[in-house]
Amino acid sequence: MSRLAYGLVALIGVVAVALGAYGVLGGTDVLRVPWLVPLGGLELALDPLGGLFLALIGFAAVPASVYAIGYPEDGRPGRWAYVVFVTSMCLVPVAANVMTFVIAWELMSLASYFLVLHDRESKESIEAGWIYAVMTHAGLACLLAGMLLLGAETGSLRFADWRSAAAVLTPATRNAAFVLLALGFAGKAGVIPLHVWLPLAHPAAPSHVSALMSGVMIKLGIYGLLRVSLDWLGTGPPWWGAALLLAGAVSSVIGVLYALVEHDLKRLLAFHSIENIGIILLGIGSAALYRVAGQDALAILGVVAALYHTVNHAAFKALLFLGAGSVVHATGTRNMEAMGGLIKRMPWTAACFLIGSAAIAALPPLNGFVSEWLTFLALFQNTHLASVGQNLVFTLGIASLALTGGLAMACFVKAFGITFLALPRSDAAARAHEANPPMRLGMLALAAACVALGLGPTVVVPAFGSVAAAVLRTTPTMTGGDWLTLRVSGEFAGVSTAAIAVALAASLLVPFAAFRLAGASRRTRLYETWGCGRIVQTPRMEYTATAFANPFKRVFDFFYRPTRRLDIEFHPESRLFVERIEYENPTRSIFDDWLYRPALDFLRAGARAVGTLQSGDANWYLAYILAALLLMLVFA
Amino acid sequence: MLRQIRTALRTGIVTEPVARAGEIERIGERLASEISRLFGRSLAIRQVDAGSCNACELEITGLTGPHYDVERFGVHFVASPRHADCLLVTGPVTRNMAEALRRTWLATPDPKLVVAVGDCGLDGGLFRGSYAVVGGVADVIPVDAVIPGCPPSPAALLAALLEAIGRLPR
Fold first, then answer.
1. Smallest Cα–Cα separation from A366: which of A407, A402, A324, A319?
2. Across the interface, which of B1, B2, B82 has its CB nearest the CB of A530?
3. Residue A75, pLDDT score
4. Could you tell me the pLDDT band of residue A615, with boundaries at 50, 70 and 90?
5. Edge to edge, what strands does the sheet with B145-147 contain?
6. Exposure check for chain A: N or C terminus, fewer CB within 10 A?
7. ipTM of this predicted structure
């Protein structure tokens, strides 16, 4: 039964890719069923941007579903929620009016809510599901308010009509609509400070669902932000772009900082999603600012960088979540401190996870490098803007992207090293087994996609360039350069990932060949890992994730505000002998402490104050009704 | 981070100049030319304490301080035998350290140089014959040179090192 469901989703994925590719290549199609839903009927329209996101959903759903076929079910339901989840996600980017969009959006949120609640016994899952439901519906409320506002002002609930009517709207309406819609979409995308649901919900769901939630679902927030900032509302004031750029800068740095001190493998990946959403926003923000300044070619570059990173992030984050799922299933824990030594026990998973790690750390020649490079180029060309304020915003973006890149690299050295290398830190890790063939196939497909997207930017960039031009409604100016070297903005910059790949391979192979030719001695001596001369080496002596993260905790202590607790129990006879040591060094979230807790306290205090109205006395309630009636009579 | 930057800015530069003359300089320059002839660049030394009273360590640490500053002659102390050309072993080899010393020697890549430091390193010195001591360094691993003294001064250490390297086959 579950095979049927997952096979069906894989099929939907294939169809989505085909339809999406047709849309990206310029195909347009409209499907209208007026009687199906009220207020405008079901209306689906395929355009290049929608097609790209549709293809993206299919592209991630196919390997995730293949993986899910092999993923052990443990007798829990969720496969039909999964079918609904993927199908509704496919509808979101092609929805052409408010009603269709909202129904698809809400179905997607509800289906993913049930998937987050996959483990209904654990308190953690229930808490995650609760926070997810609240955050996603707060976002929906913002979206509905923004969309109804636009509907009322333009007199139409069809997105196509908004485009033509956007120019005549008053600035106040446009700004209000932008703020409401951007907040709603940013909440779904996990932009800081609306990110709190993300690190809770992603780890709670089964891994193929986490892969889709992180790889694709939050990207629909990006899809919405692209529509709002560049498409539906036309060219906005510069502060829209600046706000997006700043949100991107903040999200990228803070996301990776939280990831660095996180030792739950899936939560770590969830925080990296926040970071990558930030990087995508840098591209979108720069595009919006360039567009206001009339620099259409640069605006296209910004959108291309954002779209490329969106696709890349879907590929490597889905891969990493699938890899993490294999690891979690094999070891029974998400805590990295209990892993280790898995590269020997699960070599396929380790190899795929390593490719994903290198890609997300933006190492050439993999895909993450290409899109971060494009983002850098989009930011670097801010010299074409005259405004000093905007240039400062760009500089902040550049600095944060650079810092993010370095920290992400450090984080994945930790994630891969602690999880897969050295000796196993627990019995469960020592008994770990390799993932089964369908799971391996899912991961290998995504790993191959990471490599292909890294080596083929000259094919991808022109295609995305035409999508970007369609969004910005200008003529496509983005060329990919010749077939090996990607060139950006004429002679501004160029890179050839294929040449980098060849050089890297040569740097590995040439020394071997040279030593062989030079007739060097090939005598080797095998000896155990150096352990300071100890007789027995145990996993207790290994580097831990906590130790790895500690320097960062110290350097950024003003952000983490770590608290340190050391609890030592000495032997009753002598303090020289220690019976037990407990060390804890947790960090405190400034968003929980300074934003959500005060907001919740305020809400609770308000509710308590209003609650006195509800006395339970029927006489009072009659009095309220009378008062309400009187007021209505007076004002009507 | 902010606190560290503030401290650095407030404190400023606190070092003072050192007089450079004498025997150390002469030995050092010869050592530098010998090392560069033999090793190409510098000599990487891993210091191993096999049970020393730490007097020899004090003198060795003195070598790397700002006064003697042997790194300028191409003598470089490293943190792992994996990176070392030479083991500088101090102290009588105690029973508890014998196996660790043997493993350190095995972990050092060939070709390697072993220099025993101090009278204790020579034959156990003051502690010779103790039930806790195996003997000199040469009783546990092959030794190429011995630097006697209790403890040898930094100048003596450098001179002996020069002599030990000078005796190496080309």
1. A319
2. B82
3. 57
4. confident
5. B75-77, B43-49, B86-90, B113-117, B145-147
6. C
7. 0.74
**Distance, CA of A492 to chain centre:** 30
Question: Following DSSP, what letter does each residue of A237-286 receive, concatenated?
Answer: -HHHHHHHHHHHHHHHHHHHHHHHT--BHHHHHHHHHHHHHHHHHHHHHH
Q: Which of A527, A555, A557 sits opposite B107 (nearest CB)?
A: A527
Say whether residue A523 is in contact with chain B using an 8 A CB cutoff. Answer: no
Task: Quote the tokens at residue A258.
Answer: 């939280």
Contact status, residue A60 vs residue A318, Cβ threshold 8 Å: yes
Q: What are phi and psi of B86, to 5 degrees?
A: -145, 135
- Length of chain A, in residues: 636
Å from B88 to nearest chain A CA?
15
Chain A positions touching B104 (Cβ under 8 A) are 533
Please tell me the distance from the alpha carbon of residue A273 to that of residue A261, in angstroms, as a whole number.
15
Shortest CB distance from B1 goes to which of A527, A534, A555?
A555
pLDDT tens digits, one per residue of A378-413: 999 988 888 899 999 999 999 999 999 999 999 999
Q: Does A536 touch chain B (CB under 8 A)?
A: no
Helix (H, G, I), strand (E, B) or coil at A343: helix
User: Are A494 and A502 within 8 A, CB to CB?
Assistant: no
Compare all CA atoms of chain B with the CA of A528 and give the residue at the minimum distance: B107
Q: What is the pLDDT of residues A127-149, one digit of tens each?
A: 889 999 999 999 999 999 999 99
* Contact between chains at B107 and A557 (C-beta distance less than 8 A): no
Q: Say which amino acid occupies A421.
A: L
Cβ contact (<8 Å) for B104 and A533? yes
